[in-house]
Amino acid sequence: MKVDVLTCLTVAVASLVAMVTGGRSSGRRRHKEVFLGENSKFKFGGRIDYKLKKQDSTKTLLIKTEQLLRIEEHDFAMRPGFGGAAIPVGIDVQVESIDSISEVNMDFTMTLYLRHYWKDERLAFPSHNNQSRTFDSRLVKKIWVPDVFFAHSKRSFIHDTTMENIMLRVYPDGNILYSVRVTVTSLCSMDFSSFPLDTQNCSLELESYAYNENDLMLYWKNGNDSLRTDEIVLSQFFIEHFHPSSGLAFYSSTGWYNRLLINFILRRHIFFFMLQTYFPTMLMVVLSWVSFWIDRRAVPARVSLGMTTVLTMSTIITGVSSSMPQVSYVKAVDIYLWTSFLFVFLSVIEYAAVNYCTTLEEMRKMRRGKLPSTFNASQAMAFDGCFHDNDMELTPFPRAAQGLASEPPPTPSPQRDPRPSEGTRLRRQRSVRENVDLLVSNSYMIDSYSRLAFPLSYLLFNTIYWSLYS
What we know:
Mean pLDDT: 79
Order of helices and strands: HHEEEHEEEEEEEEEHHHHHHHH
Structural class: alpha+beta
Largest sheet: 8 strands, mixed
Distance between the termini: 133 Å
């Protein structure tokens, strides 16, 4: 029995020793593999570095971008060449579209490609065939880029569909191209004195926000060729000219800054306003003249025509004013509309004068017995136009004729020739009262003169207006 117990104990101890020994040996094998793996990487790392010296670094994928450009080795919070001369930054702009121009808000919205060119030797990298590397917005956040902004802008944003529209291209010698696609709404101080026959000059201004002219110098990369445009078609404007310019902006607290300007001249299309404003206004004025050919006793016809044209002109003026900014000066369209409104209003006043003179004339004839006792003046004034002037006896120039008949012939003086006195008597002007009496007794002549005076006056006004503003 003792032998069996000892045998079992021996076997158990042997098994335990074998298990411990096997575990240690497997752990050693695992550690050995890890050690060999690390040694192999270290061993072949020198070979990879040696190969990279022979190959183009822009073609290999064995080096990270941060290591290639040595981003971690420099402080990109400061501009290139900090403490030295101002760094030149070239600007190149391609205008994609002018999205809108608002007269009410006095601004315009433009979409453009804004490109920056500068040199940062901290980003230079080795390359045998001078191949550049292109990156997106993820690398832009780690390096220094110019802080160009749009002066006098109201809103602006960088397009981000499907990714942020930002491109960064780095050349081996450290030259950098940085391009963004941006939409900006900027202020445009418009002058509406000649609206809608006006020409507007708007500009988009670019400058650095933090770096004045001692640290950063903005300039157009290719001179006048730095500004390029696609084919732009606007609904109300025709683009006459695009041209770049430059200047300096002074701020009392921070100093002088380089400023670049994108200037463009807009000329308004007049045909839209001719259809919407000028032609309807002309038609309303001409329509108001129709009342001059309607019998002066047709009160409902002439009054309704005059009131219709007046109300229509008021509607046109209100519609034009609602779509325009509330400026403190008179616009060209206001001059035309209000002058036309004055012509329409005077045509109504003209009929009021004709009506009043006709009433006085008929009342005088009734008092003198020239009209039958059964004649009703109020009914005649509301008649439909079939009652004419030849239906009643008119005596033109009554007062003047009586004055000439009752006046005795002058006795010629022996010292003077009788012919001058006779000529003086014939050229004697009538008094104001005589002129009024003549007008009252011949009220139908007011319409006759108005048929000629109103069109000629309006034609003269149009000639002067279009010659001044067109």
